[in-house]
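Standup, Tuesday
Yesterday: got the pipeline producing structure tokens again.
Today: sanity-check two examples.
Blockers: none.

Example 1:
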Amino acid sequence: KKIESSEINDGYRGKTGPIKAQRHENLSPLNAAFIEAGIEAGFKHSDDVNGYQQEGVSRFEMSVDNGIRNSTSFGYLHSQSDNSNLTTLLNAQTEKILIKDSTAEGLVVKHKGQIIHFFATKEVILSAGVFGSPQLLMLSGIGPKAHLQEQGIEPLVDLTAVGENLQDHLECHIQIETKEPVSLNKELQPHRMLMAGLQWFGFKKGVASVNQCHVGAFLKSDDSISHADIQFHFFPLFFDKNWIPQPTTYGYRLGVGPMRPTSRGNVRLQSANIEDPLMIDPNYMSTEQDWRVMRKAMRLGHKLLSQKAFEKFHYREDTPAIDMNDDKALDAFIRKDSSSAYHPCGTCKIGPESDSNSVVSPELKVIGLSKLRIVDASIMPSLPSANINAATIMIAEKASDMILKTKTTKSQILPFA
């Protein structure tokens, strides 16, 4: 509630935060058909997936304010650009954490070709992300002892969990071609692109002033589970095999996937040189449960797109165009088509110090060291059952309270479905 400024008045949402949350109420024919088809398929309808009831088909919100992406940079930093206690270095590479006597003293930074040592008067806050944070820890001698020694790095703190527990949301896709000029592909025609540019630059309006995923769904793979474990993203757009939309082919695509995968990957150093790429193993779909939920997600998605509401738009099924009851064929398509939904997290897991799988304590302090905290999505012990953007901002807000030793304003606790 603290981070957002939502247009929805249901008692569950924040109204005065720095991140704008708005819905696109005037749905296009395809987006409207998605909501109608979901109800026809027997799925629940939710007025607010971020409120009382997540489960169901629904309008999705977007972080947009007056035609501009309302990112944390826009909402937090740009809104207080005159802050005298904030200095930002551009084109700078943090190379190492300075550690002495089990205490983080500062950072080694390469800036404009020069190596600079920055020393902290209070503590070091590491927010390099799910890949950058474990990388900097390991390069600084904090991580699995054997792996660090393999890379010629002196182990200072043997934290075996650094770089482990990598998780991500995977999506597979169903795509339908239509002959009706109702998809966003038409907006790629030169004269319409010119109009979209003029509308946005002149008035911050038009098709370029919003994102293009206005509806979706959260569903259960099985009635026995407590809350939704599948997410749908609906795109009123036809893509070619390289995810590049064309102006002359119309259609729509549905992305589906498990929200709580049980597969776990890891991140490892390739060398002691920060400029060398990391070895990242997502280890997607390594458990039978993930396969079961992905198959169910694909079949539920296919069911939704087969409803009467989409009949007038359906010309042909582009993908997967297989017998959806054939597990072998479906598995082959999932292997070929699936891609990341870009929600990686978990490589510096939060937990009690007694847990060997933990990297940071409940106060986000790196275990075995003093004056070093991690504040980013890498501390998530498991994936949220949704996109991780809001949860990551919440982590930062909570961490700010802990760092400043203040208390968050209490909000009324309301029930959830």
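Example 2:
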Amino acid sequence: MKRICIHVSFLLLIVLEACNSSGKGCTDPAANNVDAEATENDGSCTYDPVWVTPELQFQLDEKVHETSGLILWDGELWTHNDNVDTRLYVLDTFTAAIKREYLLEGVVNTDWEEIAQDSEFIYVGDIGNNGSGNRTDLQILRVEKASLKSGNLSIDTISFNYSDQYDLSAAPPNQTEFDCEAFVVFSDSIYLFTKQWVTGHTTLYALSKFPGNHIARKISTFDIQGLVSGATSLEHERLVVLSCYTGLIQPFLCILYDYRGNDLLSGNKRRINLSLPFHQVEGVATADGLKYFVSNESYSLPSEGIFPQKLHLVSLEQYLQMLQEEQK
């Protein structure tokens, strides 16, 4: 009997080793399903629900009541409206007051929904597509930063369409899977995150950073269970944060990290709920990856009243401090 027990135990050990031979699983210590034996993160981590209340809040000027994107550049916040207005607005980070305005002449604002940057350019996304889902004039304006400072504006255009949008029939309002309000700019490409009204998913696409007509190449899709409205990133820290909200206008942030290559949806995807019911968040920006400015546009709900445009300062330090220490 003793020999049989040893033999069975040995076989069981072999089976267990075979089951874990891939080494893939959840590797994030902050997750509720971390696999201590996993050596490669497979993006399967799940997390307990958390809620965060902003540390500070400011009401924004009526001029930016449809604020739709945010960046931090040279210690100042930059934003824009999402309809008709072709100005960029510079905000004070301590008071949220408008400090300066820049009129982008010779361009059109069909539906500006995002602003992003790299070291040389500001990118303004005329990419909103929720009206009928079949726009053929999607474009991102590329504004040279040096030209903004000199007053002699230099603007060029990145035009594109989606690699997998074969049907350009008109959809009912807010019933398309090809709306987009969020992108980040990395050294190699622009990465777009769609706002999918029907499924509540988001699809990641890669797009050229250079002027011309291009195809946005599909990379992957994730069930984010909400509507993505903005994005910010720290490329070298391999960190992306999306601003989102649910169909009930409950805002949340989604932290993306520990991803593989250029598939920004392949790693950990942690949801941080914001204690801001009925605030339609539209923009997000960070300088250090720990504290985030989040903006919401003016929103009216008959049963709840008017929620004016605001700027919020949110700390994610307790969720990201460990990540940044590991990367040092």
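Quick observation on example 2: The chain has three helices and 25 strands. The CA atoms of residues 66 and 297 lie 5 Å apart.
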